[in-house]
User: Fold this.
Amino acid sequence: MGIRQAELAMQRRLTKAFIAADWRSVVLMRAEITEDGAGGFVTGEPAPLPSQVMRLIAQGSTGADSKQRMTANGQQVTPEYILLGLHDADIQRWDSFELDGRRYEVVFVNENRQYEAKGEVAYLGE
Assistant:
């Protein structure tokens, strides 16, 4: 069931204002991932997407309800951040990005994009 148009418009405005309060210009890197025919995958060379205005939100302390996710290289992690974009943001699982010399990877993307695009993010290091 979808959200009524008036509520949807308001939720999108609120998302835009929330992002604007602490926005970052994010260039996501996306690699094509294809099956190798032997049960595995081959990852292509990452290519940059156009810059997008997003907000990186630190998660609180990880609790029992935090889900483990897998990185593109098969490492199990607990996401430490949320990357929030507008509902039409171009964000996919296993996109990577760098901010302030730190590397991150999107390990999960919420399918409900009615008023926001939200991905769980793992910190990969410097």
In short: The mean pLDDT is 91. The helical segments are 5-20. The radius of gyration is 16 Å.
